[in-house]
Structures are given as C-alpha cells and as structure tokens.
Specification:
mainly alpha
C-alpha cells in the first residue's frame, strides 16, 4: 500500500517535486538494499523492527498525501525517502535466493515500475478532484499504518522475553 501511495503522490505533485521524488526513490531503494543491517541496527530498540517497516512507510506517505498542495513539494520527496528505504530493506529481508543479485534487481524494477505506472497514469488523466482523492488515500494510509504499527508493538509487548 505505501508504494501505491507513492505512485498517487507522484501523480498529484508538481513536476520538480516529481523529479526529486524519483531521485529519492532510486537513492533510497539502493540504500535500503545495501544498508539494511545499519538501518535495522538503529531500529533495534523498537519492538519488532523489521515488522515496523510497512507501518512507518504507510504513516510517512499518508502524512505526505494529507499536506496542502504547496507543502507537498517538500514533504513528498521526504516521505519517499523513508518509504523507499523501507521497501529496499523489505526486499533484502525477503530474499529467498541467499543474496542472488537477480532477486534484488527484479524487486527493484518491480517497485519502480509500480510507482511509475501509477504516477504517470494519474498525471496523464489528471482531474481537479484528484487532490481530494489523494487526501482520502492519505488518511487511509495513515490509519492503516497506525493500526498496523500498534498491532506490531502490542504483539511484541505481549510476547515472552527470550
């Protein structure tokens, strides 16, 4: 869902922010793939750090979509920064091939394809009500992220200590 939110956000922001978001997407996917251990080490104080990746990305993109049009120029690339890092880490953590580069390349291409397909489709068929639809999607992503993150934290808190 955060990737769908990124695609919709790319469709409703201005061209300069779209380009900045694409650069952030590429850089952070790479950072998430390469620096997975470093990022997870920083998140290790949180309960279930790997399970909190999707809620963090959902909350970031949800907040970016809720912003007024003028602030989205700044906020969307920053939210993409967080969400793309989470996507890169998620690709690395779910790699069943024992670090075969083909899996990382295919996953990265799939992420970029999904975001660009949604973003360019929304840009091509732009309507005046898309800003309102983006805010509605943002509120849903925010709610989903908060509920999912709360469930992860509650589950980790109720689990017996090793």
């Amino acid at each position: 869902m955060p990737l769908v939110g990124i695609g919709i956000a790319f469709g409703i922001i201005q061209r300069r922010a779209f380009v900045a978001g694409l650069v952030a997407l590429g850089m952070e996917l790479y950072l998430g793939l390469v620096g997975e251990a470093i990022v997870l080490d920083h998140l290790s104080t949180l309960p279930g750090p790997a399970d909190l990746l999707t809620p963090i990305a959902s909350i970031a993109i949800g907040l970016a979509l809720l912003e007024p049009r003028g602030l989205r120029i700044i906020v969307v690339p920053l939210a993409v920064f967080l969400a793309a890092t989470a996507a890169g880490i998620f690709l690395r953590l779910t790699d069943p091939s024992l670090h075969d580069p083909a899996f990382s390349i295919a996953g990265t291409v799939t992420v970029v394809w999904l975001v660009l397909a949604l973003g360019l489709s929304v840009r091509a068929f732009r309507q005046s009500w898309f800003d309102l639809a983006g805010r509605i999607l943002g509120s849903w992503l925010l709610a989903i992220g908060l509920l999912h993150g709360g469930a992860v934290i509650a589950q980790a808190a109720s689990a017996p200590a090793p």
